[in-house]
Specification:
It contains eight helices and 13 strands. By secondary structure, it is of the alpha+beta class. The longest helix is centred in the last third of the chain and has 19 residues. The protein is elongated, with a radius of gyration of 25 Å. InterPro entries: Kinase-like_dom_sf, Meiotic_Drive_Suppr_Kinase.
Length: 332
Amino acid sequence: MSTALELSLGQDGHHSLSAVPAFLDDTLRGTTSLSFRITKRICDGDSSVYHGKLDCARDEPLNVVCKIVFDEDSDRLEDEAELYTHKMKHLQGTTVPRFYGLFSGTYVNMLGRTRAIRCIIVEAWGSSPTTLKRVPMSLRITIAEAVLRIHAAGVQHNDLRLPNILISPDKREVRIVDFDNASQHDCPRAMPVILYAWEPTLAEFGCSELHDFISNLGIWTLDTIRYLGRLHSVHFSSTPEKMLKNAKSEPTATIPDEPEDQLLARADTLLKNYYKRYGARFPFIGPPGNPIYEGLDEASCAMLEPKVVSVDRLEKCRPPIETPVAQSAVPL
């Protein structure tokens, strides 16, 4: 028995589709007729995305999001449906939204030609932050954990922008959405993610998507400062004098024709800003010049493995969220 879906998109038209049985949520099996009514257009681009209500003969319609793709591009929605229903099935409702189904049909375009149309319907959930700059560290860690779980499931997202990160109203839960650019992934991550640890190199860490994303979340502590056009390690340039000396020792260095006291003042300002941003972390990881890359005990750090870490525990492992450190993470 097939399941029909009527899409009512207001000014954007009306379409009749049928469920692809392999990708229909169990709760909708046996339902012969579904209808989607638009309440708001969310975005247009490679796909058209709508918020609306899914009527499935229940007491209350489901609050859902419908993503529609036309013509040849519609094939990629099947790949997204495959990820939701197989590799990420165990993550539905906790890390990714609940997936209700893939639907397929045809339409006649303006030239009178019959073309393919497909859509997926997922649970409507949360909202996207406009910036991560003032997001508390406990929530940034929850975001990182969600992406770690997705990678552990064998999926690389490939489009981890703010619109694809959804936050609950109480700012304690996260869902990651929009997997039409995702790919299967045997994650090469070689180490755990440790709160406030010195940022490892990509070669040390292993996975480029996770490395870039976690770095942008501000979970790691940067150990370089850009001075006179070059990056300098704070472990070897922890004073203005050392920084200027190291800058002059570069074989291809171009030192501005300025008095030395002005060059030292520049370095001093950079170091003061660095300590203002990261200084509250040093009791956990040691000051510059004494890098600790591993071995932090549980009282001093939070290990970001694919598991839930309680907010209470995280609160004990970081400065209060109102401090400048917690409000100055690098935005995505």
